């Protein structure tokens, strides 16, 4: 059974940083790309970032490019979303995804 578990969310002031983690079990982690999405209240879920397997090629949405970075540690079956210069508009539930599987999400709130 494939499971994804996000952690690391919380309340942060504008301009602050957070690192989200996504631990994956139930599949051979190194063979799969990992994507991050977010969903703000009243809005649709949107793509944030992804990291390919093997090549580690990354992609980012325009709204986070230059502020967020994504990485992975295949030895730990874990992907990370490093978020810097956070803005109130980044407030959302953040999800990780691989193939058709989603995590339960972790709340990020950016507020003073």
What does this structure look like?
With 112 residues, this protein is mostly beta strands. Helix content is 0%, strand content 51%. The protein contains no helices and eleven strands. It has strands at 3-7, 10-12, 18-25, 34-39, 46-51, 58-60, 68-73, 78-83, 92-98, 101-102, 106-110. A hairpin with a 6-residue loop joins strand 4 (34-39) and strand 5.
List the topology elements.
Elements: E1 3-7, E2 10-12, E3 18-25, E4 34-39, E5 46-51, E6 58-60, E7 68-73, E8 78-83, E9 92-98, E10 101-102, E11 106-110
Parallel strand pairs: 2-11
Antiparallel strand pairs: 1-3, 3-8, 4-5, 4-9, 5-6, 7-8, 9-10, 9-11
Short overview:
This protein has 112 residues and is an all-beta fold. The protein has no helices and 11 strands. The strands form 2 sheets. Strands 2, 4, 5, 6, 9, 10 and 11 form a 7-stranded mixed beta sheet that branches. A 4-stranded antiparallel beta sheet has the order 1-3-8-7, with no helix packed on it.
């Amino acid at each position: 059974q494939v499971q994804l578990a996000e952690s690391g969310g919380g309340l942060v002031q504008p301009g602050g940083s957070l690192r989200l983690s996504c631990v994956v079990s139930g599949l051979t982690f190194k063979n799969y790309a990992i994507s991050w999405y977010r969903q703000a209240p009243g809005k649709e879920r949107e793509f944030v970032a992804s990291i390919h397997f093997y090549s580690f090629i990354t992609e980012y949405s325009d709204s986070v490019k230059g502020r967020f970075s994504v990485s992975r540690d295949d030895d730990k079956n874990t992907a990370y979303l490093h978020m810097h210069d956070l803005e109130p508009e980044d407030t959302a539930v953040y999800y990780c995804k691989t193939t058709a599987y989603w995590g339960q999400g972790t709340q990020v709130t950016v507020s003073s």
